[in-house]
From TrEMBL:
Keyword presence, Transcription: yes
Domain (HTH hxlR-type) ranges: 15-114
Protein name as annotated: HxlR family transcriptional regulator
InterPro entries: HTH_HxlR, WH-like_DNA-bd_sf, WH_DNA-bd_sf
PANTHER family: TRANSCRIPTIONAL REGULATOR (PTHR33204:SF29), TRANSCRIPTIONAL REGULATOR, MARR FAMILY (PTHR33204)
Keywords for this protein: DNA-binding, Transcription, Transcription regulation
Domain of life per record: Bacteria
GO function term, MF aspect, one: DNA binding
Xref: SUPFAM superfamilies: Winged helix' DNA-binding domain
Gene3D superfamilies for the chain: Winged helix-like DNA-binding domain superfamily/Winged helix DNA-binding domain
Length: 118
């Protein structure tokens, strides 16, 4: 069962939230964006090491979607073996406050969860 994507976001209040989540939503995109924000430039295999639970296929798909949406830039170096680097675009960098807010909220949530379990 696939995710429904909208051609336009012309609905009521809250559509801007839906539009944003359509770009960064899902299990891996936010984490990929956070890691690129943190490190600035990462190679494909570095991302694989940082995110050991993501499959190669899923990482490739997520990076392609982020690149297609203009949030991530891919640079390919003509050498053997091929070297590919990923970084946030200027447009992707505009998400920094959003990603940082998500991280801060998540830190607080995890801390609260640990305290409730104790």
């Amino acid at each position: 069962m696939g995710r429904t994507t909208h051609a336009s976001f012309d609905c009521a209040v809250g559509c801007s939230v839906e539009a944003t989540l359509s770009l960064i939503g899902g299990k891996w995109k936010g984490v990929i964006l956070y890691r690129l924000l943190e490190a600035q430039v990462l190679r494909f295999n570095e991302l694989r090491r940082i995110l050991p639970n993501i499959t190669q296929r899923m990482l490739t798909n997520q990076l392609r979607e982020l690149e297609r949406d203009g949030l991530v830039a891919r640079k390919i170096y003509a050498e053997v073996p091929p070297k590919v680097e990923y970084r946030l675009t200027d447009y992707g960098l505009t998400l920094a406050p959003v990603i940082e807010a998500l991280k801060n909220w998540g830190d607080t949530h995890l801390q609260q969860t640990v305290q409730q379990a104790a």
